Amino acid sequence: MKQRPVIDVSELPSVVFGSRAPIWWGVVGLVTIESMGFALLAAAYFYLRGGASEWPPPGVINPPLALTTTALLVLLASSFCMHEAAKAAKRAELGRILRWLIATAGLGYVFLVLRGFEFASMSYEWRSHAYGSIVWVIVGIHTLHILTSAVEKTIFIVLFIRGPVEDKHLTDVATNEVYWHFVSLSWLVFYVILYLEPGFFRP
Amino acid sequence: MSPKSVVIQAEPETPEADLLDEVHHRLEGAWRPEKGFIGWLSEVRHTAIAKRFIVTAFIFFALGGIEALLMRIQLSRPENGLLSPDLYNQLFTMHGTTMMFLFAVPIMEAVGLYLVPLMIGTRELAFPRLINYSYWIYLIGGLLLYSGFFLSMAPDAGWFSYVPLSGPEYSPGKRVDVWAQMITFTEVSGLATSVTLIVTIFKQRAPGMSLNRMPLFVWTQLITSLMVVFAMPAVMVSSSLLAMDRLIDTHFFNPGEGGDAILWQHLFWFFGHPEVYIIFLPATGFVSAIIVPFTRRPIFGYNAIVLSLVATSFIGFGLWVHHMFATGLPQLGQSFFTAASIMIAIPSGVQIFCWIATLWGGRIRFRTPMLFVLGFIAIFVAGGLTGVMLAAVPLDLQVHDTFFVVAHFHYVLIGGAVFPLIGAVYFWFPKMTGRMMSERAGKWSFWLLFAGFNLTFFPMYQLGLQGMPRRVYTYLGESGWTDLNRLATLGGLVLTAGVVVFILNALWSLRHGAIAGDNPWDADTLEWETSSPPPSYGFLYLPTVHGRHPLWMPRENQPVVVGLQDNRREVLVTHTLDAEPDHRDIVAGPSIWPFVLALVTGFTFITVIFTPWALPWGIVLAIIPLVCWFWPRSDMGRVILKEKA
Amino acid sequence: MNALAFLAGSGFAGRQSALNPAGPQAGRIEDLWWLMFWVCTAVFVLVMLFFIAGMVRGRRARKERGVEAPMSVEPGVERRMMRTIVAAVAATVITLFGLLVASVATGRSISPLRVPEDALTVKVIGHQWWWDFEYQHPEPYRIIRSPNELHIPVGQPVRILTTSADVIHSFWVPNLHGKLDLIPGRTADTWIQADRPGVYRGQCAEFCGHQHAHMGFLVIAEPPERFAAWWERQRQPAPEPATPLQQRGRQVFLSQACPLCHTIQGTDAGSRVGPDLTHLASRRTLAAGTLPNTRGHLGGWIADPQSTKPGNLMPPNPMKSEDLQALLAYLESLR
Ligand code: HEA
Ligand code: HEA
Ligand code: CUA
Ligand SMILES: [Cu+2]
Question: Across the interface, do B345 and C96 touch by the CB < 8 Å criterion?
């Protein structure tokens, strides 16, 4: 009987983290797509600004820096919590995962409340002028990201409390970190563009 | 990877037939689609979904073609009263939109969905349920556009819908909203498909298929998908901004309130130019795949071709302004975009030269797929050269928005993409169906298409130079454009005959074609190793490779992969660069929820046309199918860390 | 319909074509075109020669050596092909660089920077689906408007400023120059010059809605003296009606809906929604280059503009036949 060489892979693991896992690449793909979207919105912002005689238009009052800065810090803190959750996931410590996920989602919801105040303190609407349109859309889309992502975390929390938790959920939590960092860091950029920088140039 | 876990050992080459049979049955059990109508909607197998994509896209091609014929008949004589301007405007908008968004881009990706897993030797795509969702959302987008058409709500502002013409003031009603939402659907679908393809190509290649051994076809799919990821967000952003201007009174494009009409053009063409390479590059993949077996030699200049693809994809993002030369942008900027547009001729040239060298050094069999490749080379070079002419700003100012441009882009789109596509159908039809297409009818279809094509579109170059603008529903008799238009219409009829012969050939061969066997063309890549059509699990044992042309190399001592569990949908994940085995992953099986989610998404984005409140409601509604989609299923055979409470 | 044939007699200088230049810019662009044409033709022929030779060789090789042993290639041939390709790429780069230089040079020679400061300036305002040409002058009372007919002095550069009242249109007279878009909220400028007297047809080149196809105009290039005289005439208000019929026609005009949209200088009609009709009878065409300006066409147009230009923005004006005759008599007196 002739023999044929084979590669036996039955001993290979079936749970891995980071760039070894296909889902990680999927999330990175999603993040790339959304970063592109945000970058284009930023480009649109600067394009409109380049064509405007006065930017922001007269009469625009943006939310107080104290509010927006606090919100930013809350978001960055939640990013830290998410990092801890992912670390726990890599070590398969279910209890710690749950605690840090709750912290992350909690801070996410706090941020959403602050975001509500942020919207309320804008002196303009999306239909006031092009400035209003672009700012509302950027802030609005970012809010939508935080909202969906916080809900997603809540669902994870329910799953981790209720079970059944499978090995692959560890990878899911660990990869989720990438996405959450993306939404919070992208806000750092927009915070500078929308709130910090125009203030410096205004009398 | 811990190399220890991969054991190379010897096994009987021809195990007992009943052992093979048993493996086959177990795999069948794991990969079998679910039964019934619900099962049909839940299907996730890449071969099944890809076939749906391909058939649907060809139906849209036929619809777009019929619209083109109506336009050609209208233009066949001056001051023709056949079509009203209103109808004509809808027709060219529908034609362009259908061909670009519902035919060309999806079908190129669909062929990739079918072939990539087989070519890289894996059982399934990385995210099968996402692909199922992607198909339904695409179908909903297409149905939306065509129901709009039949309700007299078809968009009529051209396939790039320039504002302010497409804005709330000059296009009241719902026509443009239908267009904008259709864009959203097809782009979501395109993005989902691309991410899936990228991950599959990066992570699931057969052991030994390092990046530099990947078939060129797979390279083109990879690079195209990467381009999609970077380009399509632009059209999503722009169509969403347009929809908001129209539906909730934002002012992005309204000059009266600080908005800007040119912003639209930048955003659209930042997508629109890469889009044409998103259509063209996969077609070059078909060409590279077909030319090899029919010249009986490896492709000449593999590395050069890969580099050209990469270069094209990068430069392709720096050309968009060449569609906007007539807007009067600053001259310095224009020169930059001229230079970039001209530069892209270099990688295209390199590819053409390599193919010609492959012919030169090969032993050519002139079968139908090869004829389409040869036709492609002739037509594409002609079309590409006119692209170089268009890149020169002063010349473009004369021929921009004339039939010269129409001629250019049909040369590169039909010659450059549809010819290779039809060649690809002739080539892979046996793999997909197990039967050959008729060679005689194939030759007929080729010559009809080749002659008809040139007869239709060559006169358009001359028409453009003689001053005929595009998108005119009629023209005055004194313009001197009558004869050439008549010729073009005549050509259009010949072209149609070619398309019809092709379609009938495919339908006839489905039933009556000769039985193909596994590898009827004696081709070189892995998809020809498995049976035709492939079994539901792809390969009985996953193959490994040690070169670019696995089936042309000795196979006896080439190991196969064993040790994947055959009672669930398990795939082998390998390293991104060198494709060493890394771990085993379980891909998702059939589920109805992607379909339900597609319905919810569809419902949301369609009702949003009528009330903005649909959006929050839709998001809330979408949570249910999303959770169900990802909720753990007991039959997946995963390790349970914590039991259900 | 025999719309523009009559123009042939009145000095219509050939057809609307980019290859029949009548001005310096169209001329330079035509030169660039022929350069491109010959270079690209040469490239095409060369590539096709190699392509066909490759097919012939490949066919012979199959006949001679069959189709077995697919991995075998002849190293000598491979090396020669490699050298040829490197040479071809080098030639491509050089050719492309040459074309780039030619393009940029042509671009400079036609650029808007080349008009003298005091050149005649015409502002082109696009409307769905007609053209308004506003002749600029430092003294406001000398500013005139000439819808759908652009008169220019032969041999002199004319600055063109473009903008739009509604959607994007594009100003294009192939015999004189390439296009420039008319974009709402922006102005752009270019210049044109006709070196031969004559009538050149222009056409809107950016899709702008229903009647994009029928948004034409005429450029009338005439000797400077005649041009100056034309300008003087256009400055005058409409002549007073000379006959009772014309008198009645003016009455009809003012009592119908016409003044809601049209201007006739010297009367109370002063709206700018539609073309200025003060000198209607002096123009050669009606409805943006669509119909010859004859009595029959004018009457048909006024009674039912939607049959010739479906979807255009002038509503039908049903009226008694005598009223229409009077109106026509009046409008035809507006020289
Ligand atoms: C498959 C699609 C496809 C492809 C591949 C291309 C390829 C190219 N296109 Fe085309 N293009 C379109 C699809 C495509 N285009 C479409 C759809 C539009 C119109 C959209 C609309 O308005 O509706 C358009 C419009 C368009 C314009 C705008 C015209 C206008 O609206 O005014 C321009 C201008 O620069 C242009 C340029 C080019 C160039 C330089 C290439 C180059 O990539 C071509 C390179 C190839 C070659 C040059 C041939 C091979 C090379 C050699 C044999 C080497 C030797 C060559 C030389 C020495 C010159 N294209
Ligand atoms: C991949 C893209 C693609 C393809 C394949 C085509 C294919 C064709 N196009 Fe297309 N065209 C575009 C993309 C494409 N086009 C775009 C983007 C525009 C610009 C739109 C705009 O301005 O907004 C355009 C515009 C355009 C115009 C200009 C309209 C204008 O500006 O006024 C014209 C005019 O002749 C034209 C003609 C044709 C013809 C005759 C075909 C032919 O090749 C079609 C051949 C196919 C058929 C005829 C179908 C035959 C099938 C059947 C009859 C069914 C039979 C069924 C069974 C047997 C089951 N096209
Ligand atoms: Cu105005 Cu087209
Ligand atoms: Cu382009």
Answer: yes
Residue of C185, C194, C247 whose CA lies nearest to C222: C194
Phi and psi angles of residue A134, each rounded to the nearest 5 degrees, phi first: -70, -40
Return d(Cα B409, Cα B387) in angstroms, integer: 8
CA torsion, ordered A77, A82, A87, A92, to nearest 10 deg: 140
Going residue by residue through chain C, which has 335 residues, state the pLDDT in tens, using 9 for 90 and above: 333 333 433 334 347 899 999 999 999 999 999 999 999 999 999 999 999 999 999 999 999 998 888 888 889 999 999 999 999 999 999 999 999 999 999 999 998 777 888 899 999 999 999 999 999 999 999 999 999 999 999 999 999 999 999 999 999 999 999 999 999 989 999 999 999 999 999 999 999 999 999 999 999 999 999 999 999 999 999 999 999 999 999 999 999 999 999 999 999 988 999 999 999 999 999 999 999 999 999 999 999 999 999 999 999 999 999 999 999 999 999 98
Q: Cα–chain-centroid distance for residue C254?
A: 33
Q: Give chains near A: 3+ CB pairs under 8 A.
A: B
- B415 CB-near residues (< 8 Å, 6+ apart): B375, B376, B378, B379, B380, B382, B383, B453
What is the B413 CA–ligand 4 centroid distance (Å)? 12
Q: By CB neighbour count within 10 A (0-12 exposed, 13-18 middle, 19+ buried), where does A147 fall?
A: middle
> Which secondary structure element, helix H or strand E, spans residue C164, and what is its range?
strand C158-164
Separation of alpha carbons B557 and B543, rounded Å: 12
Select from C46, C142, C52, C165 the least CA-distant residue to C95.
C46
Between B and C, how many CB-CB pairs are < 8 A? 274
User: ω into residue B85 within 30 of 0, thus cis?
Assistant: no
pLDDT tens-digit series, residues A56-78: 888 888 898 899 999 999 999 99
Sequence length of chain B is 645
CA–CA dist B283, B289 (Å, integer): 10
What is the 8-class DSSP label of residue C270? B
What whole-number distance in Å separates Cα of residue B120 and Cα of residue B202?
A: 10
Query: pTM of the entire structure?
Result: 0.95
Q: B344: Cβ below 6 Å to ligand 1?
A: yes
CB-CB contact of B110 with B57 (8 Å): yes
If you write DSSP's letter for every residue of A88-140 in order, what string do you get?
A: HHHTT-HHHHHHHHHHHHHHHHHHHHHHHHHHHT-SS-TTT-HHHHHHHHHHH
Please give the structure tokens belonging to residue B497. 């005959």
Distance C208 CA to ligand 3 centre (A): 4
Q: Would the CB atoms of B469 and C16 count as touching at under 8 Å?
A: no
**Half-sphere CA count of C260, side-chain side, radius 13 A:** 7
CB C334 within 8 A of CB C239: yes
Element (H, E) at B158: none
Sign of CA dihedral B52, B54, B60, B65: negative
Cα separation, A101 vs A154, in Å, equals 8
- Cβ proximity of B380 and B457 under 8 Å: no
Which residues of chain A are within 8 Å of residue B565 when distances are taken between CB atoms? 10
Q: Using the beta-carbon criterion (under 8 Å), do A4 and B10 form an inter-chain contact?
A: yes
DSSP 8-state assignment for residue C214 = G
